[in-house]
Design goal:
Largest sheet of chain A: 11 strands, mixed
Number of strands of chain A: 13
Distance between the termini of chain A: 22 Å
Number of helices of chain A: 15
Largest sheet of chain B: 9 strands, mixed
Largest interface: A-B, 46 and 32 residues
Shape of chain A: globular
Helix content of chain A: 25-40%
Distance between the termini of chain B: 82 Å
Order of helices and strands of chain A: HHEHEHEEEHEHEEHEHEHHHHEHHEEH
Mean pLDDT of chain B: 92
Strand content of chain A: 5-15%
Oligomer: heterodimer
Helix content of chain B: 40-55%
C-alpha cells in the first residue's frame, strides 16, 4: 500500500488505473469467488477521476487518496444498495453514509462496491447469504469464513487492496484467518457504528481487512476516533500509523492461555501458532502461560446476548418504511408475512432464540445470567492484562472448512470459540496469517490487546508477520 | 355496599425542547407530515440515538418540581413491540433504573390540602402519529403514518394509587399541568397531545385493606373526559360488584360520544415487552452539582405562589387562584404590586375587563397599566372612564395620559364651568327643582345626572354635588 501511495503520489499510476485494474480482477475472478454483492463501477470510476484531478492539483485528501476500498454490505452507503445479504433489503438504498464511509470518502478513497456476508452478519462462513456463498480464493471448495467473508475473499483474491468488515464475535478475524489476510477487531467504541446495520450493538465493531499489518493499520487510522453520532464511541482516541519498531517485543509479556490450545484445536494450526510464539521469544518476548477459564462460557454467553440484541435490532424490518413488503389485510399479518418471506432460516432461528431469552419468564435465567457471565469474562481479561501486555492465540480452531461441511448450527457457532471473548470484553484483537497447513490453507494467529492498545497489537503483529514465510500465491 | 375508590394515574408530558430526544430534528407542532425526520427518528438501519441534554434537563426539573429523588445514575431500556407508528419496533425508555422516584404533589380540593405520591418519573421517546382512513387501524382500508412526532421527548409520570375520587384525579392533573407550565418544560396541551393521561381504577369495600382488581382506562383526551370516564367506571364497577360479579383486569377505552368505557384487551392479552438495557446508549450519569444548580433555577411553584398571594398580598382564595391559574396574570400582578400599586384596585382591574381584552390581544406593558391605575387614583379620570381608557390602550400605542388628553377625557373640575352647567340644569328643570325642594330627595340623583350628561360624563362627581348643594341653597 505504501508502494501504491507512492506510485499515486509520483503520478506513476492513477486512481482510475487502479480502479480499472480492480474491476478487471473482479470480472475475472468474482464469477467463482462471489465476494461482491454490488460493484459500483460507475461510481468508483467517477470518484477515481475526482481523486486524479485532486492529485493533479496537488490537493490530495490523504496519502491514500485514490486507493479503492470495498465495504461490507451491512454498512450504509448513500445511494448505493445495502442489502445485508438479505432478501428483505434486496433493493434498499440508504439515504446516508455510515460515519466510517464518510471518513473514507473524506480521505479520498473510491468505494468499489459492497461485499458479501452472512445474512445480517449472522454466521461464520458466508453460506447464510441470501445471494450465494463466497468461495475461499485459496480453495473454491471451501468457505471464505464469515460473516465478513466477502471482504476477506476480495482482499485475498486481489480484487481490492483493502476492505471494511464488521466483527461481533469474530466476523473480521475468522474470515481473515481463513483467507490469509490481516483483520482487526478494534476496541469496542473506538470506531463509530453509526450507519452500520446492527447485529448486536454491545458487541459490534467495524474494522479493516488488508494484505499486511501496515495496510490494516493505515485503513484503521482513517476510521478510528470518537463520533458524536455514536454515544458508545465517546472518548475514543483517533489512531495514527506508528513508526514501526521491532524492539517493541523485547521484554514484551505475551500471555498464552492454555484454554485456547486444548482439545479441538487442529494440530497444524497449533504448530504454526507455537512457531510464531517461539520466534517472538527468540526476539526477546517473555511467554507467560495464563488461564482464561471463562472462555469455556464465551460462546454460550455470546449467543445469548447476540440473539437477544438481534431480535430487537431486526424488529424494525417490518415492511412499513423501507425494504420488501408483503401486503396483507391488516398490520400484524403484514409484519408476519413480510418477515417470514424476507428473512432466511438462520436469521429466523436467532430472532426466535433472542425473543425467548428476553421474554419475561426467561429473562433472568438467560439474558441476565449471560450479562453476569460477561462481567466475569471482562474481569478475567482485565486481570490478565495486569500480568501480560498481549495475549496470543490461534484465531480459529481449524483452517477453512468445506462448503456445506457444517450443517449443524451449533457446530458453526463453535467457529467463534477463540474470538468471541474479545467482543464480550471489548478489547481489541488482530488476526494475521502465520503459516499454511499441509493443504496450503492459511492459518491465522490472534493478538489480543487491552482497550485502546491497537498500536501495540499492530507493532507485535508486524514482528510476527516479518517472521512468517510467504505462503503459496493465490491462484484463482 | 359502600366502596372506596382507588385511582392511580400514568401521565405523559411532551417536553418542549427545540429538537427531538435522540436526534436533532425539529419538534415544532403542525409541520407538513414527515418533514421533520432523519435516519435516527425514522429508525433507518444503522442509525444510532444520542441523548438530547436539554431533554434530560427538563426531565430533571420536572422531577425536582414534583419533589422527587433525582438519581445521578439512571439507564435506558428498550421496550419491544410491533406497531406501524414505532419506527424501530422498540421504544427507548427507562424501566429498571428511572431518572426520578419517590416524589409528591400537593394541591387543594376546595379548602382541603391533598398530597399524592409520585412513584416514578422517567424519560422516553414519543411514537409517530397514525392517521386512519377509517375510524381505527382495525377497520381502515389504509393508515398513514406521520413520523414528525416520532422521537419527541416525553416524561412518564406514575402516581401511587392515592387518589380517591374522579374529581380529585382531575384536580391533581390540573395541578400537575400548572406545575409543568410554571417550570416551562412543556406546553401541556391535552388537545395537542402534549399532556396525556391513562387512569387505573379499582373499588374495594369501604375500609378494606385489600385492593380490588384494577382496570386501566385509555384515550382520555381532556380533563373532563378523565373525570367522566372515572365516574362512569365507579358506577360500572360498583354495579358489577353489587350483582356479586367480578371485575375483569383489563384495559378499557373511553368513548367520549357514547359516554362510556369499552373493553380493549384483557390481562391475558397484555404484551410481553421484553425490556432489556439499551446497548446503544451509555447509562445516564448526572453531576449532583448540576442537579443542585437546576434546583436553584426552579421558579416559584403554584402552591407557594398561592400562599404568598393570600398571605402577603391579602388576596382572597378566589383572586389568588385566578392569578395562580393564569401565571401571566400572576406575574403581572406581582410586578405591579411590587411597584407599589394598590393590590385591590390592581386585582380588580386584572380580573375584570382587562382579562377579556388581554386574552384576545395579549398583555399591555406593565407601565401602561400602572399609569392607568395612577390616573384613576389621582382623579384625572373617573373609575367609569377608566374602562374606556383601557379599551383604548389595547388599540392605541399612546400612554393613558396621552389618550385622556387626546380624547379630552380629563375630569371637569373647574368650578366656574361646572357652576354654569349646574345653573343651566336647574333652569331647565324648574318642575323637578320645586319637587325636590318640597321634599322629594330622591330627585337629587336625577339632577346630578343632568349635570353629568351636560359634562359628557367627565365631571368630577364630588364637585358637582357640592355645587348643586350650593345652587339649590341659594334658591
Amino acid at each position: 500500500m505504501r508502494e501504491l501511495a507512492e506510485l499515486l503520489q509520483t503520478g506513476q499510476v492513477s486512481s482510475t488505473e487502479l480502479v480499472i485494474a480492480c474491476l478487471e480482477q473482479i470480472k475475472q475472478t468474482d464469477g467463482v469467488i462471489n465476494a461482491f454483492l454490488t460493484v459500483d463501477e460507475q461510481g468508483a470510476l467517477e470518484q477515481a477521476a475526482q481523486s486524479d484531478a485532486r492529485r493533479a492539483r496537488g490537493e490530495a485528501l490523504s496519502p491514500w487518496d485514490g486507493i479503492p476500498v470495498a465495504i461490507k454490505d451491512n454498512i450504509s452507503t448513500r445511494g448505493l444498495r445495502t442489502t445485508c445479504a438479505s432478501r428483505i433489503l434486496r433493493n434498499y438504498h440508504p439515504v446516508y453514509d455510515a460515519t466510517v464511509v464518510e471518513r473514507l470518502k473524506q480521505a479520498g478513497l473510491p468505494i468499489l462496491g459492497k461485499t458479501n456476508l452472512d445474512e445480517f452478519a449472522m454466521g461464520s462462513s458466508t453460506e447464510y447469504s441470501a445471494f450465494g456463498v463466497t468461495k475461499n480464493p485459496h480453495d473454491p471448495a471451501r468457505v471464505a469464513g464469515g460473516s465478513s467473508g466477502g471482504s476477506a475473499a476480495a482482499v485475498a483474491a486481489g480484487q481490492v487492496p483493502w476492505a471494511l468488515g464488521t466483527d461481533t464475535g469474530g466476523s473480521i478475524r475468522q474470515p481473515s484467518s481463513f483467507c490469509g489476510v490481516v483483520g482487526l477487531k478494534p476496541t469496542y467504541g473506538r470506531v463509530s457504528r453509526y450507519g452500520v446495520v446492527a447485529l448486536a450493538p454491545s458487541l459490534d465493531q467495524v474494522g479493516p481487512l488488508a494484505k499486511t499489518v501496515e495496510e490494516a493499520a493505515a485503513l484503521f487510522s482513517l476510521i478510528a476516533g470518537e463520533d458524536p453520532r455514536d454515544a458508545t464511541s465517546a472518548g475514543a482516541p483517533a489512531f495514527q500509523v506508528p513508526r514501526w519498531n521491532a524492539a517493541v517485543v523485547q521484554g514484551l509479556r505475551v500471555g498464552v492461555p492454555e484454554e485456547f490450545f486444548s482439545s479441538g484445536l487442529n494440530a497444524e494450526v497449533e504448530a504454526a501458532v507455537r512457531r510464531s510464539l517461539r520466534t517472538l521469544e527468540e526476539q526477546g518476548a517473555v511467554l507467560k502461560p495464563i488461564s482464561l477459564a471463562t472462555n469455556d462460557y464465551a460462546i454460550d454467553t455470546y449467543l445469548t446476548l447476540v440473539t437477544a440484541e438481534a431480535s430487537s435490532c431486526l424488529a424494525r424490518f417490518d415492511g412499513v418504511r423501507y425494504g420488501e413488503r408483503v401486503a396483507a389485510p391488516d398490520a400484524n399479518t403484514m409484519f408476519a408475512k413480510t418477515r417470514g418471506a424476507g428473512f432466511g432460516a438462520e436469521v429466523k432461528r436467532r430472532i426466535m432464540l433472542g425473543t425467548y431469552v428476553l421474554s419475561a419468564s426467561h429473562y433472568e435465567a438467560y439474558y441476565e445470567q449471560a450479562q453476569r457471565v460477561r462481567t466475569l469474562i471482562k474481569l478475567e481479561i482485565a486481570r490478565a492484562f495486569e500480568q501480560v501486555d498481549v495475549i496470543i492465540t490461534p484465531t480459529t480452531p481449524s483452517t477453512a472448512f468445506r462448503i456445506g461441511e457444517k450443517r449443524n448450527p451449533l457446530e458453526m457457532y463453535l467457529s467463534d470459540l477463540y474470538t468471541a471473548t474479545a467482543n464480550l470484553s471489548g478489547i481489541c484483537a488482530l488476526s494475521l496469517p502465520c503459516g499454511y497447513d499441509s493443504q496450503g490453507l492459511p492459518i491465522g494467529l490472534q493478538i489480543m490487546g487491552d482497550h485502546y492498545q491497537e498500536e501495540l497489537v499492530f507493532q507485535v503483529g508486524r514482528v510476527v508477520e516479518a517472521s512468517v514465510e510467504r505462503g503459496p500465491k493465490v491462484e484463482v | 355496599m359502600k366502596y372506596d375508590v382507588v385511582i392511580g394515574l400514568e401521565i405523559h408530558v411532551a417536553l418542549l425542547t427545540e429538537s427531538k430526544f435522540l436526534c436533532s430534528c425539529s419538534t415544532a407542532f403542525g409541520a407538513p407530515p414527515n418533514t421533520q425526520c432523519c435516519p435516527v427518528c425514522l429508525g433507518l438501519p444503522g442509525s444510532l440515538p444520542v441523548v438530547n441534554e436539554k431533554a434530560v434537563e427538563y426531565a430533571v426539573k420536572a422531577g425536582l418540581a414534583l419533589n422527587c429523588q433525582v438519581h445521578t445514575f439512571s439507564r435506558f431500556d428498550r421496550k419491544n413491540y410491533f406497531y406501524p407508528d414505532l419506527p424501530k419496533a422498540y421504544q427507548i425508555t427507562q424501566d429498571t433504573y428511572p431518572l426520578c422516584t419517590d416524589g409528591f404533589l400537593e394541591y387543594y380540593i376546595d379548602d382541603e390540602l391533598r398530597c399524592t405520591a409520585i412513584t416514578r418519573l422517567h424519560l422516553e421517546e414519543e411514537a409517530g402519529k397514525l392517521i386512519h382512513s377509517g375510524s381505527s387501524i382495525v377497520d381502515s382500508e389504509y393508515s398513514l403514518v406521520d413520523y414528525n412526532r416520532a422521537g419527541i421527548p416525553l416524561i412518564e409520570i406514575v402516581t401511587a394509587p392515592d387518589i380517591t375520587s374522579p374529581r380529585q384525579a382531575r384536580l391533581f392533573l390540573e395541578q400537575l399541568r400548572l406545575v409543568m407550565r410554571y417550570i416551562g418544560v412543556s406546553d401541556v396541551k391535552m388537545e395537542e397531545g402534549s399532556l396525556r393521561c391513562d387512569a387505573n381504577i379499582s373499588l374495594k369495600p369501604q375500609g378494606s385493606p385489600v385492593l380490588g382488581t384494577k382496570v386501566e382506562i385509555k384515550n382520555l383526551n381532556s380533563f373532563r373526559a378523565l373525570e367522566r370516564a372515572l365516574e362512569y367506571e365507579v358506577k360500572r364497577q360498583s354495579a358489577v360488584l353489587e350483582r356479586g360479579g367480578k371485575i375483569k383486569q383489563e384495559s378499557r377505552t373511553w368513548d367520549e360520544r357514547a359516554g362510556r368505557t369499552l373493553s380493549m384487551r384483557s390481562k391475558g392479552d397484555a404484551p410481553d415487552y421484553r425490556y432489556f438495557p439499551e446497548p446503544d446508549l451509555p447509562p445516564l450519569q448526572l453531576d449532583p452539582a448540576w442537579v443542585n444548580c437546576l434546583k436553584d433555577t426552579l421558579p416559584e411553584l403554584p402552591l407557594a405562589r398561592l400562599r404568598r398571594l393570600e398571605e402577603s398580598y391579602g388576596l382572597s382564595r378566589y383572586e389568588a387562584t385566578f392569578l395562580v391559574n393564569y401565571p401571566d396574570f400572576g406575574d403581572l400582578f406581582l410586578e405591579l404590586a411590587k411597584a407599589g400599586e394598590d393590590n385591590t384596585a390592581l386585582v380588580n382591574l386584572l380580573m375584570g375587563d382587562y382579562a377579556r381584552l388581554a386574552r384576545e390581544q395579549g398583555h399591555l406593558a406593565p407601565g401602561r397599566i400602572a399609569e392607568l391605575l395612577r390616573i384613576v387614583a389621582e382623579g384625572l379620570i373617573t373609575h367609569n372612564q377608566s374602562k374606556a381608557v383601557l379599551e383604548e390602550l389595547f388599540r392605541s400605542p399612546l400612554s393613558p395620559r396621552e389618550i385622556v388628553r387626546d380624547k379630552g377625557w380629563e375630569v371637569l373640575r373647574d368650578a366656574e364651568q361646572l357652576r354654569a352647567m349646574v345653573q343651566e340644569a336647574l333652569a331647565a328643570n324648574p318642575d323637578i327643582v320645586s319637587r325636590y325642594r318640597a321634599g322629594e330627595e330622591r330627585l337629587w340623583g336625577y339632577l346630578v345626572g343632568q349635570v353629568m350628561r351636560a359634562a359628557a360624563g367627565k365631571a368630577d362627581p364630588k364637585v358637582v354635588n357640592e355645587l348643586l348643594k350650593e345652587e339649590l341653597a341659594r334658591g
